[in-house]
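Obj: model holo form, ligand = flavin-adenine dinucleotide.
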Amino acid sequence: MNKKNAPSPAGKNAASLPERKTSPAPETKTSPVSEGNAFPLPEEKALTPKARRQIPRAPMPEQEPQARSRNFEEVNLGLNVLDAVTEASRCIACAKPRCVVDCPVGVKIKEVVALIRKGDFLGAAAKLREDNSLPAITGRVCPQEKQCEGGCILGQKGAPVAIGNLERFVADYERQSGQLGLPPNAPSTGKSVAIVGSGPAGLSAAGDLVQKGHRVRVFEALHEVGGVLVYGIPEFRLPKSIVKSEVDNLRRMGVEFETNVVVGKSVTIDELMRDEHYDAVFVATGAGLPQFLNVPGEHLNGVYSANEFLTRVNLMRAYQADEYDEPLYDCRGKDVIVVGGGNTAMDAVRTARRLGAKTATLVYRRSEVEMPARAEEVKHARQEGIEFRLLTNPIEFIGDEKGCLTGARCVRMELSEPDASGRRRPVEIKGSEFLLPADVVIIGVGTTANPLVQGSTPGLKTTPRNYIVADPETLRTSKRGVFAGGDIVTGGATVILAMGAGRKAAASIHEFLTTGEWEKAGDME
Ligand SMILES: Cc1cc2nc3c(=O)[nH]c(=O)nc-3n(C[C@H](O)[C@H](O)[C@H](O)COP(=O)(O)OP(=O)(O)OC[C@H]3O[C@@H](n4cnc5c(N)ncnc54)[C@H](O)[C@@H]3O)c2cc1C
Ligand code: SF4
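Output (holo structure tokens):
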């Protein structure tokens, strides 16, 4: 490799670098890697750890805030080849990489990054897929600042390696190269597994199980496959085409999907096992039942749960109001308030903005430090003109004589001692009430377990809050042959945790189907 072509370690010689393009991976059927790396790569030995630390983090190209706050196109545009290789060159290859420890599924980040640095993007993708079956998705939505990037040692004195952006780059590159290396399935075992729910937990379990030679059929209550990845997370953060491409890969591998089947209503788990002869069932139904504030006026026209709002926009094309007649309060020119501080609330308020809201305001009872939303989403929301009313809590919604919402009566809050969640508890400031005008209020304060499957499955042990009890190691439930994982066990968590649970369940189901042994875990009695 020519030393002259190496990207500048300190970013000082930026002028000598080839022009940066903002397109993601090339739209080509052949990999540039196999064509002899036509792009400049850094000279490995030339870069000392000190020099690596001096390379600035490659910025993620983005749509300009004013333009994107009026469209549903993806906000982040993806790194180009040169930026990805330069970013990978920042990694100092720690002997004991903390990023790997802090990734919930232990992606071999150091090895992946080293392959990117060498320009072997397909090799990097294959390495990623050893631990993470949905890298194009996790690269976009993982809260990296709390996980892998939170552990990166460069973050102690500067910006951590952009692991999420690199993961996305590699996965997009692989997809667009058309060279996805799907491993062959094992010979048929003659066993069949029913998976209930097609979110990340169900999808990742399906992929692993079909590869082990089992017949796999996924039952999904909605008309689209993908769970929260399609009905919750909006297009501007995670394009549906990315999820569809992962689902298409699963179909190619032999996974069967049946939509519009509400297990617990259309068919029960006992019927699946007794009448349809499934040898095992994996319940991955998520935690999609919205929670409300339980304050007066929540019944008024114009008050929605974030779950309903986002589902109508995502799956029922409410964002094409001129063409589709979806019953959703028109946000155009309206004052919209979203209550909450997590990813769901952030997605809802940014969606309202894109639907033409005059004002889109986030009301959150704690401060920004306690917000559970991904840091990047908070930054993007601010750039898009979302107003943040922090340390504020609605106590009543006000309506007119026709039952239509007109405003939210709110109080100001202050933070006291930490509560059970470890976050400082918000306390009402007496006499601080004020009225916020609103035509639409969207409640995004969390979700809980949908009870359908639990209620229709005798012998399935649940917690007092109706989550399914499953052994943390084997994901076996109290009912023979039935496993459970993802949000339906943990409560609302993250995509990567749900995916990790799916993979764990697949390994455990495979063991059960192979040995026929069913040991009851201690707390399953
Ligand atoms: C709006 C929103 C934004 C989020 N943003 C992020 C983010 O940026 N990063 C992140 O890591 N996490 C995020 N999360 C959380 C993450 O999406 C979830 O933790 C994850 O999707 C859980 O996966 P799961 O497979 O357990 O369940 P889900 O994704 O909820 O999938 C469950 C599936 O089961 C189906 N189902 C339910 N009951 C039945 C039944 N009886 N019969 C048949 N099918 C059924 C549902 O329709 C659904 O498709 C977000 C969540 C929401 C709601
Ligand atoms: S899966 Fe998520 S946490 Fe793990 S390396 Fe990828 S982006 Fe980071």
